[in-house]
Amino acid sequence: MKLNFSRWVAALHLIVFILVSNAIAQEKPFRPKVGEFPPLEKAHSYQGELIFVDHANRRGSIRVKGTGVFRRNDPHPFAMLPYGIVRYHGATADLRDIPLGTVLHVRAFLPPDPTISAVPVLPINNKEKDANHNRGAGIFPAENHVLLLEDESSHCLREGKIWKLMEMEIRNNAGKIVARREPKTGGKVDEETLTFDAATRIWRGRERLDVKDLIAEKIWPTNGKKSLEEQVVQLGITWKPTLGGIFTRFHVSDIWLDDVAMQRAAQNQTETHKIFIRSRWMPAWVDAVEYGKFGRAKITATLFGGMDNSLYADFKKGSGALMAASENTLKHWAGGSAGTSQMASKGLILDVTKADGKVPLGSSGIQIRFETDLITEGIRPARVIRTRPASWPDLHVPREECLQDYKTNHEDRFPTPDIFPKY
Amino acid sequence: MKLNFSRWVAALHLIVFILVSNAIAQEKPFRPKVGEFPPLEKAHSYQGELTFVDHANRRGSIRIDGNGRFRFVAPSPFALLPYGLVRYQGAPADLRDIPLGTVMHVKAFLPPDPKISAVPVLPVDNREKKYGYSGTGVAPAENHVYLLEDEPSHCKRLGLVWRLQEVELKEKAGTIIARREAQADKGKVLSETFSVDATTRFWRGRERLGITDLTDEKTWPKNGKKDLNDQTVFLGISWKPTPGGVFKRFHISDVWLDELAMERAAQIQNETHKAFVKSRWMPGWVDKVEYGKFGRAKVTVTLFGGMDDSLYADFKKGQKAMLASSENTLKHWAGGTAGTAQMASRGILLEISKTNKRAPLGSSGIQVSLETDLVTEGFRPGKVIRIRPESWPLLEVPREEYIHHTLDGIEKRFPTPDIFPKK
Fold first, then answer.
1. Record: contact A207-B208, CB cut-off 8 A
2. B399/A72 Cβ within 8 A
3. pTM score, two decimals?
């Protein structure tokens, strides 16, 4: 009897512990922490149309797909996390590379620090609220700090998915396609009806075709329906106003008919981003600073992830490098007439190490150890920096991408959400 | 002697008249008037890189080339006039179609009404002001844009072509020397050095190529210089940070190697814009309203210019049409659940006329008269409207492109310049 009583007390304690833990978990939702890359699994996922871009501050707006009438959804502001990754056509990109109107897949978190959020801070449970006016729930999630922003082709390539074209119906060079998105190796199937028109680009090897070309080649009919026999493709997806009271129907902007065509698109975007990073320097954050004497210090920094491997390979032990303070927007600090180089700490790369095992998405898993004789205030643990090996060209970023040392005010460092219209 | 005295008096009067006229001209600089399309010749011309777009309000920012250090130049806000034209790859476009970074040619005026300018109002003589290292003319007061066109559109309009002189490459990147001149005769020649790299797209017939394709075909050398023998092309131009202390060097984003390739690009853009205008309705302004009884009126409007001819051809005498109020931003007015259609006046197109004279740039030269039994406040002479023939699909525009009659405030009708960073 005594034993049973003890067991009951223990069970009661366990129940109370679980309830309290749950309550704490509900009170303290997950937010990324400074100096830690958050796990992708904890991100909130949604999809929507890119409406507005403020690339200099790495933020924008997206019309989030809910369950209601898509066109009514107000553009929803988002900010890229400093280590957040943008992907376009299967390669890494900057926000400026994504055409307005592109439908994107989003993995996002609550603001790590709401007091300096560059976009509006919303109630934590906002994704559950019905937005009324037939818009449905989930169109204004509080999770507006983005870890991963990727277009349809990047999303499919990353997850090993393909589109299979089932059937089309065409009239006056425009119409509808029924298509299924599914894993290459089999699994869950999403079937969707999409529109296309005379402006849809069709990529085949090195060719860019349009609907009229496919009609001329008798691959597609001039009018009427045709089975497309599960033709395997990759799709680029946008949105256009839709006929007939349909809540949401996306539009096909691009069709890649074969792997060569997709690889060529990815290659072009990869080259664009490689040149971009060489001119803007590699973003990273500081893990540790070992202070020496007379301004000397050894800095350990983790390079952010998602870049082309050739960029990481340029960081070599024993080679010269520069390191400069940055901000959450990844803006540079500039002074005088020589830009970032004038403000940067110069030194040597002492060591380059790569973490074993799986690396979280925002990280490259690569740490560099760098020694300089000019340690500055911006280079502190967890602070965002930009670094470049001396072998990269000494290029200077344009005005809107840098903070001028004596002209910059607080709003330039921490942009406020004021530019976003309220609907 | 008397005659001489009269002559002197007459000459003196003439001199005084000229001086006074000049003074008046200096005091009253040209501004477009409501209800009149301004002459293109009176526009101020400049060129720059598109750095920011707020397409819903038809405005953005451009980094203007002022013969100083281009990267120092702060983006200069601009607003499109309601009848202002955007052209991209030789076809009409919307601001959302232009990739950030594209170098554009601009023809612009002072704000027609500074009180409701959507961009900062600057001193009238600001184009003469030197902004330090940025140079002169980088922030003109003429920021209300009549014509915004990319390089191939500019060349097509003026009958110009680029002739490639010489290329110098090293590791998939380098420079090209090219001359822009009139297609028909030599005329004025502009010689310029551009950068090219692995992201430059080459269009040949239906093919999209990269630099490596050209070097593999031995059309271009892998390393070193090659004479390009005045090869005639069209160029797409952007800007990237430039090494070597060069103040300004533009970058070649696209090379159209033949007419067919250029026509295909224009065709896709034209189809994009046709679908866009059909879904957003044709913009125009009201010339005249003849009021009848019980809300009946005959409204005569001029359709704005620059669209594909097939869109104008859809306005046919005797056909039904819808006419709706708009604003200088070309935004729609919407109410209820059916969008613009619910707020629009329905009627019959009574007359369609086309002027025999050369129409000014912003005008199509086409007037249509519509008789409706529901004339509304927005149809006043000089006011901007949207009109659609019944044959166009009845589509509803997304949230950021309309003003909601009950939910939106005055700042949606007259956006303020507050979103632009202060220089």
1. yes
2. yes
3. 0.93
